[in-house]
Design goal:
5 domains, six-stranded antiparallel β-sheet, 21 strands, 18% strand, flat, Sigma54 specific transcriptional regulator with PAS/PAC sensor, Fis family, ATP binding, transcription, DNA-binding
Length: 641
């Protein structure tokens, strides 16, 4: 168990280093990561090999070797040396696990000879995909002794390889973007560019006619740095002098934006870029270009003026202001997730990062924050998105039924099991299983869930037949699972398997700028359902909605808008009076205290009724089981149902 935990820690550390790696340092980070895995697993060779779909020859891009292990060629004809392995790994996309040469089938005789020639006694080859194509291979060889390859080594190796491939893809994308930008920069500069050369020792300045024109001089004028400073705005002298001095000590490109005073007294904006020319350790010349960007600056100033005018008009608008739902979500591929705040953009960045990896994701956040929508988006953007995502609300099922729901049952497995039933894991084979409120799962069921995540297999209740599945897990909880582990209410080993890629979904009070967009979306949704056309929300009402703390988050906001549409007789929303008392706005109250007060206020309004029509659970738009759980945690008394 310690070895597994340490391997997970090593993978986590490598993952963190890959996130921080720049394009320039990525090769070194990958090589050091392979060195670490080689040392930890005590093997002879480990390599990351690039696969060319048009050729059987693969390239050894990165490799780490034990001291006594011979190096292999940088290019290997895998189909010729290992034909059986080539068909298994490249052709069928399956992992090759060889604990000993005896594991190879009779048709792999050529592979056995090649392994013997290389001195391999055990080997593991993991295919790494981009889309449906095998893009890279992660290979591990043992030479001294035969060894097993536990499933956890395979899982962590695949995760490590996916991290490598993702980082390499990111670098290639950044490089392509940078090349495109450089080409555009050159094309833009070539139109009205002025060239110049400054002697850093003497201060003499050579310039092309176009550069002299930019500076306001005749083509025949002899220039020096001092003469140039005479026409530059006095406030920019210090900036120019500092850049010239900096050029004496760096080989990096320098860029400065400044103002030149024209003969008629007007100011023109210039941008100069330059790089010092070094010889024998001395920077003698500064070579550069200058572009007149006055038109661009004037457009920027005009734009800023227009923006200020628009902001001023927004303030002066009559109290009723029409809020139009933003279409940014569809344009950016956010799907069902609504919100353009910095917090939601960060979440979408994480979603895009993890969606295609197939890794387990843990969503944490308060009740009603939209964790289910985040899970749906991850699934939709993944390679499993063509299949339906299977959902299980662990809090909505009585403890004894959770296991039956997850793993299925045979007829007669227990009293009342009158028919055979497939479990959610079977239904989710090849797709994604979303386990909501996973903290409500019993410790016994957690142990069985851990086995499925680790081994991909389970048995139905009442059956001894093992069922294998390929399921991606997305789990969600409104509790802090790390604290639940400390309290002994959640298994630590399961937490570590779920916490590979955690995402925190923020409460609505942390992203109030998203509220207008959510309001208009709910108005459209309920308006279509009720046959009402609401065009406006009064400015004061939108301000009230934006400033409210929303203890129930998006779910509470949705409830308020639905109620408001019911009572609205015209095309301007009539806002339901928010029933939360002022104590919800106590800045010194803890989050749990705010939630406790809110639940108590709703219970008071319903006369203590929790279930059924008009009950507290319906008003809060949460499952009664979830409400009971929250009340127990917050110390709110209730009668057992």
């Amino acid at each position: 168990m310690d070895d597994i935990f340490n391997l997970q820690k090593l993978t986590s550390a490598i993952s963190a280093s890959m996130v921080m790696a720049s394009s320039e340092s990525l090769d070194g980070v990958i090589n050091r990561a392979l060195d670490s895995m080689l040392s930890f697993l005590e093997i002879a060779r480990i390599g990351l090999l690039a696969v060319d779909e048009s050729s059987p020859v693969i390239n050894v891009d990165y490799a780490s070797y034990a001291k006594d292990a011979p190096h292999v060629s940088k290019q290997i004809n895998l189909a010729a040396l290992f034909p059986w392995t080539y068909d298994l790994v490249i052709g069928r996309g399956q992992t090759m696990v060889m604990a000993s040469l005896d594991d190879l089938p009779s048709e792999a005789e050529e592979d056995r000879r090649s392994h013997t020639m290389l001195g391999n006694k055990s080997a593991l080859i993991i295919p790494l995909f981009i889309g449906s194509r095998v893009h890279h291979l992660l290979t591990l060889d043992a030479r001294k002794t035969e060894r097993d390859w536990p499933e956890e080594v395979v899982v962590q190796g695949r995760l490590l390889g996916e991290i490598f491939v993702s980082a390499l893809q990111r670098r290639e994308a950044e490089s392509s973007l940078r090349r495109t930008k450089e080409r555009l920069d050159i094309a833009a500069l070539s139109a009205e560019i002025g060239l110049w050369e400054l002697n850093l020792d003497t201060g003499s300045l050579w310039a092309t006619p176009k550069a002299k024109e930019h500076f306001g001089f005749d083509p025949d004028t002899e220039l020096t740095l001092s003469r140039l400073l005479d026409v530059i705005h006095p406030e920019d002298h210090g900036l120019i002098s500092a850049k010239v001095e900096e050029s004496r000590h760096t080989r990096e490109e320098l860029m400065v934006e400044y103002r030149v005073r024209a003969g008629d007294g007007s100011l023109r904006w210039m941008i100069s870029r330059g790089r010092s020319l070094w010889e024998n350790g001395h920077a003698g010349l500064l070579l550069g270009v200058t572009v007149d960007v006055t038109a661009r600056k004037e457009m920027e100033l005009q734009l800023q003026t227009h923006i200020r005018e628009i902001e001023s008009l927004k303030v002066k608008l009559e109290r009723e202001n029409q809020y139009l739902r933003l279409e940014v979500a569809a344009a950016e591929g956010q799907g069902e997730i609504l919100g353009s705040s910095e917090a939601m953009r960060a979440i979408m960045s994480q979603v895009r990062m993890v969606a295609q990896t197939g890794s387990t994701v843990l969503l944490q956040g308060e009740t009603g924050t939209g964790k289910n929508l985040v899970a749906s988006t991850i699934h939709r953007l993944s390679g499993r998105g063509k299949k339906a995502m299977i959902r299980v609300n662990c809090a909505a099922l009585p403890g004894p039924l959770v296991e039956s729901e997850l793993f299925g049952r045979e007829k007669g497995a227990y009293t009342g099991a009158l028919s055979r039933q497939a479990g959610r894991f079977e239904l989710a084979d090849g797709s994604t299983l979303f386990l909501d409120e996973i903290a409500e799962m019993s410790l016994e069921t957690q142990a069985k869930l851990l086995r499925v995540i680790q081994d991909g297999e389970f048995e139905r209740l009442g059956s001894s037949k093992t069922i294998k599945v390929n399921v991606r897990i997305i789990a969600a909880s409104n509790r802090d699972l790390a604290k639940e582990v400390e309290a002994g209410r959640f298994r630590g080993d399961l937490f570590y398997r779920l916490n590979i890629f955690p995402i925190r979904v923020p409460p609505l009070r942390e992203r109030p700028e998203d509220i207008p967009q959510l309001v208009m979306e709910f108005i459209r949704e309920f308006g279509d359902r009720m046959g009402k056309r609401i065009l406006r929300v009064a400015h004061k009402d939108m301000q009230l909605l934006t400033n409210y703390s929303w203890p129930g988050n998006i779910r509470e906001l949705r409830n308020v808008i639905e109620h408001s549409l019911i009572i609205t007789p015209c095309d301007t929303l009539v806002l339901q009076r928010l029933t939360a008392s002022p104590e919800f706005h106590d800045a010194d109250a803890s989050l749990e205290e705010v939630e406790r007060r809110h639940i108590q206020a709703v219970l008071k309004a319903t006369g203590g009724r929790i279930k059924g029509f008009g009950g507290a659970a319906e008003r809060l738009r949460i499952n009664p089981s979830t409400l009971y759980s929250r009340m127990r945690k917050l110390g709110i008394g209730f009668k057992q149902p």
